[in-house]
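**Protein fold record**
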Amino acid sequence: MNKYEQLSNLILERIHQEEYPPDSFLPSERKLMAEFGVTRDTIRSALKSLESTGYIEKIPARGSKVIAHDKIDFFVSDLSGTSEKYHSENHSFNTEILSLKKMIVDEQLRENSGFSLGESVWYLLRRRLLNGRALILEVDYLRTAVVPELTKEIINQSLYRYLENQLHLKLNCSKKEISVENITTPIAQYLDLGKHEKNIFVVRNWAYLTNYTHFQYTESWHQVDSFKFVLLADRPMN
């Protein structure tokens, strides 16, 4: 890792810990040079990296201002569709359908999803734009035995409403796994990420009907600094 990248990560850590709180200004270049014992070029490269990833803003004659980031709640225990989730939170929300087709479950998908090898599924690739930024990439696999017909028009209206209101399916529960993983080029090309971002939230979801039929498997990638994951837990009744 280059010296400026190490410095950039250290300043970013201080931003996250609010040692440099939102809307405050970073110390001057001269003070940063004295504190870290590096050249002005190294300081400027580190600040340029933070600016390109949206953490600071250069204000002429004033310095580098820390940008406030209001993270969006992602409710882990919620089975609502993504469009229902974010429309209800009054965010500017748009979805781009990048691909919709049928495919056959191969060995890799069987291992990840739990579907049977060789069965037919819908492959649905979508990009989610929140407040004008592409922050989520999502791929869904739905069993055609459960969902025989699917069109872009149906999806644009709301996939889950179609399943419940038109197909009269009763959605029950889901299992989610959340991890932080390295960003790969095939994922990064679809999202608005800073060139120095290295990690991304990955959410894997297995959804079931009330008769415990497994009908959907989803993988989604979320830009790290835009979301916080929220779990609501009920105390069991005796």
About this structure: The radius of gyration is 22 Å. The mean pLDDT is 87. The chain has two domains: 3-66, 72-230.
